[in-house]
Structure prediction request, 228 residues.
Amino acid sequence: MKKELLEKLQNLTILYAEDEIGIRKNITDSLRYYAKEVFEASDGEEAYLIYKDKKPDIILSDIHMPKMDGIELVKKIREEDSRTSIIMITAHTDKNYLLEAVELHMEKYLVKPIDLDQLLTALEKCVEQVDKNREVTLKTDPDYSYDYDNKALTYKGQSIILNKKEMLFFEVLISNQNHIIYYEELQEKVWNEDVMTDSALRSLVRNLRKKLPTDIIYNLSGVGYKFV
Prediction:
């Protein structure tokens, strides 16, 4: 792996889901030399809970696992997240698995047994994709661009200054552009331990709309918000 990409990988987190403990420990021990942090899961359900809590930059998942297999895990993640880089690892080369995996927009499909060079090559592709995902354009209006690293929103190259809650609100919506974001999720991700009142939410949205050159925030009354 190139030195520049290796340095970037050291700032990223990885989730590895594998039910065979020997394989999992071997790979995670190796990955910890390269990544900022590595999370382990022994089945799909545990992996999904870790994904929701930790939001890893890269996910490695075996296909055949108890409780929830790798395909179902990735399907569930892709319902709300099209950006996280995913590598599928399996002992099987069945064509149906390959076709289904391709449809889930994964970076790489690796067949066991895998060696470290093979894994690092796959991770290199993930690092490149993570870089691309750091700056996101709005699907309904590509003149809007949001840079996650610098917490910077621009419209046609002009900066739009957001306060902390406005920024968090915008991040939640732009990270899930195809879905309504429910009030419960806004409470969790924008207000956190503070109480989100109806008036506070309306005030935030009203002030944010004033800062945006176009009206892109849609409210489904009693449900939540999304971009239009």
Observations:
- The chain has a mean pLDDT of 87.
- The first helix runs from residue 3 to 9.
- The radius of gyration is 19 Å.
- The CA atoms of residues 139 and 177 lie 7 Å apart.
